[in-house]
User: What shape does this take?
Amino acid sequence: MTYFVVVTNKTEYYVDLADSPSTTTNYVPMSIYNNTNLDLYFKVKLKSVNGGNPDDAGYSNYERTIGLISPGNKNLKSYLQFDKDISTITSYPTTDSLTITVEAYSDDTYTTLVDSQDITVNYTYVNHKDSSAVILEKWDFDDGTTQGWSGFDGVDSGTYFSSPYSAKFNETYTKRYLTSPTVSFTTTTGERYWLSFKFRLSSASADINKVEYSTDGGSTYNLLDSFDKTSGSLDELVNKWICYCAKLPLPEGVTVDLKIRINAKNDNTAHWYDDIVIFKQ
Ligand SMILES: [Ca+2]
Assistant: This one.
């Protein structure tokens, strides 16, 4: 029998390590369902990286106790947290394959293991400030304007990632698109294109619902990422700058009129965005 079900939203994760401290902390969100009529206590940990010992690949602090999930219940906001020593990265982009083990125990001292399941995700590290990166556009809002973006309520000098301003979305109880100006360029076959930005939420009830991109100047949009509220915002991530990064699956060898839009929900709380970057690497 299967004691539990574990669900992850996605298997590909991207991190822009520009401005990162020497050790970066990252997360793999997941939902865990207890299928039994037993009290089960859960632990999640990194089992291996690229088939070897996680320590050898610069990983640390990669075990986390989830605690009790009662019979028939689910914990929608479970996650693995881990640290990565970025000095182990010698070139960008680089991808690590992470095997994560979710363990179920019948006791709260985590002595009797009753079931375990492995999931595998890929973590790809890029760096828009590395010499190998080519910046196509960067919006830092430091001229005190929203730099052609629509949807923001203005800039903020009180909270920013790069001084002296960020862009702020502040209207209450609203879901709306934050939309970039058009960035036109010709894509190179075989090149990898990336979007990264820093954002900050003032409450766990605020959220990003999805990120989309257009290659035709905004006539049609394609989904880049969607965020399920049940495993999206983590309370631990509130009131700190979070780095979002994604690979842009652009058509090759053509001129694109790229626009980005972020569908954000403001639940009577504020969002801030800063250092939104389109780059290739
Ligand atoms: Ca800024």
Q: What stands out?
A: The mean pLDDT is 93. Residues 46 and 100 are 5 Å apart (CA to CA). The pocket of calcium ion is lined by residues 140-142, 160-162, 165-166, 274 (CB under 6 Å). Residues 4-126 form a domain with the Immunoglobulin-like fold (CATH 2.60.40.10).
